[in-house]
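quick one before i forget lol
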Amino acid sequence: MVEHWRKTRNLTIYVLVLWAIFAFVVHMFAKNLNEASFLGFPLGYYFAVQGSLVIFVLLIFGQNMLQDKIDEEAGISEG
């Protein structure tokens, strides 16, 4: 059980670090990215509005899939 919680903690830390990178670090470069455009919108704005949301949804699904795998390995899966 200790191994299960170690893997769960590490996964959570990994996902939170990725979330922080896409929530804060990428947007620090928005001003420089705004020099280019995508679909008529400044690239920094597009990344902030669309790109971050897509990444956050992918992080949620990825974390869920990996956590299910960790739970199955420990024999405590829901299904």
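fyi The radius of gyration is 17 Å.
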